[in-house]
Amino acid sequence: MVEHRVGPYKIIRPIGKGGMGRVYLALDEQKDQQVAIKVLPDNFLEDKKKSDYLRRELLIARELKHPNVVDIFNIIELPRKNDGKMQGFMLMEFIDGDNLRKHITDQDLSISQALDLCEQICAGLNYIHRHRLKDGRYHSIIHRDIKPENILINSRGQVKIVDFGLSTEEKGFRFLRSKSRAGTPQYMSPEQIRGKHVDERSDIYSLGVCMYELFTGKLPYEGKDRKEIMKMHISRSVKPEPASSINKKIPPALNRIIMTALQKNPDKRFPSVAELQLALKHVTVSRI
Questions:
Q1: CATH architecture assignment, domain 97-281
Q2: Do 208 and 192 form a contact (C-beta atoms < 8 A)?
Q3: Residues assigned a catalytic role
Q4: Edge-to-edge, what's the strand order for the sheet holding 159-161?
Q5: Is residue 38 marked as binding?
Q6: Which pick of 30, 89, 95, 131 has the fewest CB atoms within 10 Å?
Q7: What residue segments make up the domains of the chain, in order of their start?
């Protein structure tokens, strides 16, 4: 149970649980500003090597400034009242809105509206994949857990990608999630399931699953449990039904984009999110 206050921040209510811990809505009473506070797992501060790595990655994550990427403000460490042990908290931008899951469940978007959201997701993903450090070096961040719950949409229809900040290509990532293949089975790429090296094409596959679900209301692969779903994702003999067979309103060009993103061989997918985004822009539908 988190305290009623975290330093100068007054906890208002829980707002969810992300890949690294519980998330709360809080008020910065000094600035009269709402923020999201993520409670980091205890082991982050118990292991010096891990906590030092976390701080380095947060410095990088704080540099990320893009309209479609949630802002990470800071990390603070405070003693807990019950036992005096240090507890870590990550301060982030609070997004007042829904996530992509609501639109998938409600199926309330036109093809044009859904395309706009997909283009925004691509813009944010391309930014973190192509992130350049202050010294000019590239530091590609692979999300590894693209799913509807990690795609927020504010009241103005603006997409914000969350739960990405520490999913880097560096080997230190492994302390964050127990295995490099950690993710959500329904949205994981075949190479991620196998525990192999992943690059931005793995995120493209996961985004392909999200797009398939957004435009059809169904997942490309559905099974009775996690194990069966994972087998379907990696099996070359199991292929998803074309998205346009489920939703007849999907234009042929859009269907090709979705199915290309879902190719089990990474080399057959789009080589970059930028190319996927460009393909989406060329889909001809009424944008009214």
A1: Orthogonal Bundle (1.10)
A2: no
A3: 145
A4: 97-99, 151-154, 159-161
A5: yes
A6: 30
A7: 5-93, 97-281
